[in-house]
Amino acid sequence: MRLVLSQSIKGVHPKREAGPEGKRRNSGRKSSVESNKRRHNLLTVLELTNATPIKNKVGRGYECVYCVEVFLDPSDLKMHTAKDHSDDKIKYKYFKKMLYANSAKLDITSLQCTLCHLEIGGLNELYLHLNKEHNKKIYTDIKDKLLPFKFEERDVARCVICSETFASFKMLLSHMNIHYRNYICDVCETGFVTERLLKSHFRESHQRGEYKCGICAKVFSTITKKKDHEKCVHFGLKKNKCPYCPARFVNYIKKNTHISEVHNKPCIVYNCHACEKSFDAHVKLSTHIKRDHLMERKYECSECDMNFFEKDSLTEHMVKHTGEKHFACGVCYKTFGRKKTLREHMRIHNNDRRFKCEECSHAFVQKCAWRSHMKTKHNLTV
Question: Where is the C2H2-type domain positioned along the sequence (predicted)?
Answer without folding.
Answer: 62-90, 183-211, 211-239, 270-298, 299-326, 327-354, 355-378
